[in-house]
Specification:
Layout (H helix, E strand, L loop, with lengths): L3 E4 L6 E4 L16 E2 L5 E2 L1 H25 L33 H5 L6 H15 L4 H13 L8 H14 L1
Antiparallel strand pairs: 1-2, 3-4
Helix pairs in contact: 3-4, 3-5
C-alpha cells in the first residue's frame, strides 16, 4: 500500500493510508528519524529534545522582549500598562493643568499618572534601567519613599536618582 503506515501500540498493528495527505515523494517520518530493524524509530528522543530546546528558546525570547519593552534608542519605554494605573488620575483637572499654570509645570504631583510616567522614564534612562520590574521599583519609591517635602520635578528627579544609586 503506497503511503501506508503502522500505528504502534498494544494489540495488532493497524494500517492507515496517508496517500491523500502526503504528496508524491514526501516522507512519512520527520527528518532525522530512522526506522530500525524492529520497525521502531531511532532518533525520536533527540528530535524531541531538540524541539523542546528550540521552543524553550522562543519562550525565553518572548519573555525577555515583553520584559524589556525597549524603545528605538534601546532604553525602556515606560507605558501606562506597566504601572498600577488605578491609583492615578489620568486627566488634568482645571486648576492642575501644566499648560495653563506655570507653578504646575514646575511642581510634581505623584497622583497624576501623566506626570509619573515621564518622571519614571527620565529616572530609568538616567540609571540604565531596562525592565518592567525596574519601572515598578521606581513607581514604588515614588509612592512609598519620596518625602512629601520634595515637590519640584527637578528635586524629585535628583532624589530618585540618588535613592537608587544608594539602594
Amino acid at each position: 500500500m503506497s503511503g501506508a503506515g503502522n500505528i504502534p501500540g498494544p494489540g495488532p498493528a493497524r494500517q492507515f493510508d496517508l496517500s491523500g495527505i502526503l504528496g508524491r515523494g514526501q516522507s512519512m517520518k520527520p527528518p532525522g528519524l530512522r526506522v530500525d530493524k524492529h520497525g521502531g524509530l531511532q532518533g525520536a528522543r533527540q528530535a524531541f529534545q531538540g524541539d523542546c530546546r528550540r521552543l524553550a528558546g522562543r519562550i525565553h525570547q518572548t519573555i525577555t522582549k515583553e520584559n524589556t519593552m525597549a524603545n528605538s534608542s534601546g532604553n525602556l519605554k515606560v507605558r501606562k500598562d506597566m504601572l498600577n494605573a488605578d491609583v492615578y488620575s489620568w486627566h488634568a483637572a482645571e486648576p492642575d493643568d501644566p499648560h495653563k499654570i506655570k507653578q504646575d509645570a514646575v511642581m510634581f504631583n505623584r497622583k497624576e499618572g501623566y506626570e509619573v510616567i515621564p518622571m519614571i522614564q527620565k529616572v530609568a534612562d538616567a540609571l540604565g534601567f531596562e525592565t518592567v520590574d525596574d519601572v515598578k521599583r521606581i513607581e514604588a519609591a515614588i509612592a512609598n519613599e519620596l518625602p512629601g517635602n520634595v515637590r519640584s520635578r527637578e528635586n524629585v528627579y535628583n532624589w530618585l536618582v540618588k535613592y537608587f544609586e544608594t539602594h
